[in-house]
Design brief:
Blueprint: E1 9-13, H1 25-35, E2 38-43, E3 67-70, E4 84-87, H2 93-98, H3 131-166, E5 170-172, E6 180-185, H4 199-204, H5 206-217, E7 223-227, E8 230-237, H6 245-258
Parallel strand pairs: 1-2, 2-3
Antiparallel strand pairs: 3-4, 5-6, 6-8, 7-8
Helix pairs in contact: 3-6
The structure holds pyridoxal-5'-phosphate.
Length: about 260
Amino acid sequence: MQRGAVPFLVSATAGTTVLGAFDPLEAIADVCQHHGLWLHVDAAWGGSVLLSQTHRHLLDGIQRADSVAWNPHKLLAAGLQCSVLLLRDTSNLLKRCHAAQATYLFQQDKFYDVALDTGDKVVQCGRHVDCLKLWLMWKAQGGQGLEQRVDRTFALARYLVEEMKKREGFELVMEPEFVNVCFWFVPPSLRGQRGSPDYQERLSKVAPVLKERMVKEGSMMIGYQPHGTRGNFFRMVVANPSLTLADMDFLLDELERLGQDL
Ligand SMILES: *Cc1c(COP(=O)(O)O)cnc(C)c1O
């Protein structure tokens, strides 16, 4: 503001990459409406939750967005890549932004409505017909089939969280809102040491060591990262609907096994 800059857009996130957090869209939409700001919702990760009657409340307010990005290739497991940009705009905005009107490519004097052509509306020009994958998957699974997939991943994540709470060596970063289960594995030598000055530093070295071990063992692949002031923690994203409760138990047993000497 001091520099005379005028904000024109708010980009909210529905399902953040690491923690799986959802911004309060209704409240943000109120602010945007009041100030006449464009509201974009990055629902790349969390957008698929809309298919679940049980969990869609996480996205309440998304209907007020001016634009929404959603990746069916994430939680719905559509073949990479399958990304959707939804716009409220009906004035052919994409064409107005991107069209180069190359006369050697895009003829306007065709026998059908040329507004249906996508080639001149996007930056890339040549494209896969990625939406066909989503359409076919939706046809094959039905809305209910996709809903079950989403609900199943939530149930598996919930099971994993409850089992973690029963075991000594697992500490949750937070109660998950979504299917990102963020946690530290606290190895035997660090248990009960939380008060010691180098605890955080030692704890943050655990995840890289365990990751190396699980990869070399060939048993699992779980991502880890630091986040803000928090040292490295694991982020188990339960997104595959064919996972089972037994897989969740295996994950916990395997981490205990791989980390027992640490
Ligand atoms: C994955 C992700 C993106 C990036 O999506 P791409 O289609 O890979 O560019 C953006 N935002 C969030 C929150 C994501 O999880």
